[in-house]
Amino acid sequence: MAILTWFYHQRTLALQAETRSLAQESLDKAGFTFARADTLDNRLVISGFSVDEATAKAACAAVLDGVRERVGRPGVYTKIDCEGISYPGSAMVRSRLPTQPEISVPSSKKPALKSTQQAEVSCQSRLTEAGKSGTIRFEKGSSPILGGQEVLDRVAAVAKECSAFKIEIGGHTDTGGAADLNERLSQMRANTVRDFLISKGVPADQITAKGYGESQPIVNDFPNGKGDVPGQPDSSLREQNRRIEFKITSSN
Q1: Which of 31, 136, 194, 197 has the fewest Cβ atoms nearer than 10 Å?
Q2: Residues 6 or more apart in contact with residue 191 via CB below 8 angstroms
Q3: pTM across the whole model
Q4: pLDDT digit string, tens, across residues 139-170
């Protein structure tokens, strides 16, 4: 029985990885490079920052079209969750986007964007790509930067080229430990990154820092529900939630 359970678990992981890769490929081919596909619990979660609600829905539709035949199959995903795609005006309360294959937007029909919107999409995509070009590391439980300065150099270069837009530096932690401590730690780390970017010539009034703590995990990093127990061993899941994200919030 144990062998069968292990085999089923491994097959599920493989099927989910294939579907997640297909979803990301669908987003990229359709031009929605601001969005990414991740796994949370038994859902395929699409997240990112869109210029408006219509573009967010179109990105979700591209995923639905790309993985339509896979969702709901045993061992894949129970649903597609597009609520992680935010857009101006949705930061506090995100409208629920379609999670069933009920909308059909041909991938060749991209939403018409005004020049400013196109610039915002381009800048957001470049910021996201720069932020993911390496790993920004901090001292354990503290905010001094231990590694990843080259990543921040790339982010600074993009920010200066995208000076028409304000950028939020979002700090995120794993879900281990006390939530209030994690929020303070993430704010400290976001502040450190902001100071670094300013030292590289990014205008101080262009960038803000916000610590989200453990409130926006991209994966369930304690599947056994022991995140509140001190001294839990580290894992790759926890590493995925510990991150710095760069998001355009408005135009200057």
Answers
A1: 31
A2: 143, 209
A3: 0.56
A4: 988 999 999 999 999 999 999 999 999 999 99
